[in-house]
Amino acid sequence: MLVSYIVFEGDSVVIAKNTKFSLAILLSNLFIVFVGIGLVIPVMPTIMNEMDLNGSIMGYMVATFAIAQLIVSPIAGKWTDRYGRKIMIIIGLIIFSLSELLFGLGTAVEVLFISRILGGISGAFIMPAVTAFIADITSEQQRSKALGYMSAAINTGFIIGPGIGGFLVGFGTRAPFFAAAILGGVAVVISLVFLKEPERHIYEETNTIKNKTSFKRIFAPIYIFAFLLLFFSSFSLASFESLFSLFVDHKFQFTPTDIATFVTGGGLVGAIAQVVLFDWLTKNFGEIKLTLYCFIISALLVFAMTVVNSYLSVMITSCIVFIGFDLIRPALTTYLSKVADNEQGFIGGMNSMFTSMGNIFGPVIGGLLFDFNFNFPYYFATIVLVFGIIISLFWRQPRSA
């Protein structure tokens, strides 16, 4: 059933209709995009062999995606505030569809790199716009639940995607890429027809942050703690995930089926936690305390991965560790959306930028450390998480919030 809510701002009343319907479209779009991203994972080794590519080139492709997203995210965040949420989502979906089509058609490595650049740009357009859209159509009381659903939609799509991709490979090596392009096109049509540009909450300016340049605004106390914690959490998670299969292969001689089971199980547990627990946890602890507790849990469990030695203990540890990681980002995103006032797009862009930085440096540094000892990446990720704990201890709710 479609619902409405009323937000009181000073003497004015802003009424937003069909909140659930708009949210369902946004979550469907994210789900479709991340199913499309997950679709291609099973076929990447085959593409690598078909085109005689080495591991370094494949690694550069992953980095290219993240670097493009890193560079474009701040610009896309500004455009989201200036030109609107809907148009940025639609453009991002079109670019996503084109990037997957190019990868499916590409027979030269240069085309594949162009595809990955476009993929990074599409992510930079979509994520800040969706986050800002959700902030516009929800009250502060509803927002934590909605952003929890957003993270769950992303995780679930990414979990289901590889399974569907493995099935589609039977129709041809490039079939998953074409399927992802079609899914992106479907999302474009859905958004064009059903998504309506939201009415924005208009806040009276209570600080001088907006008058600063974008670079200086990053270091404002109201933002910088959350940005640093986003970087630390994404760095640690990217390092953990990107090397997990190599780690358990070297240490426990796990099979690909074992690895897929752990990754899928951990992802599902994290997605369920976001849907079932996140709203309750934020209401009872607040975003700042929840972030601190999640950093502590994640640090303990990442370190525990280096000392556990049985199949069952690895399974339990790897599943639970994702709960901590998967609650950190929506907690930080919820906090930022509440303090951003009229800068939802800017904050969404910065959120994406700092996350991209972690996604770039985490696997790179982790990979270098792995060559010395397969435990070293997890030791270093634990140290980074400890820095996050220290920052969280000094982080306080700003008065303007």
TrEMBL record:
Superkingdom: Bacteria
Family matches, as NCBIfam families: 2_A_01_02
Pfam families: MFS_1
Gene Ontology molecular functions: xenobiotic transmembrane transporter activity
Domain named Major facilitator superfamily (MFS) profile: residues: 22-400
Species of provenance: Ureibacillus endophyticus
Cellular compartment(s): Cell membrane
A cellular component annotation (GO) from this entry: plasma membrane
Keyword Transmembrane attached: yes
Protein name in UniProt: MFS transporter
Stored PANTHER family: GH10249P
Membrane protein topology class: Multi-pass membrane protein
Annotated keywords: Membrane, Transmembrane, Transmembrane helix, Transport
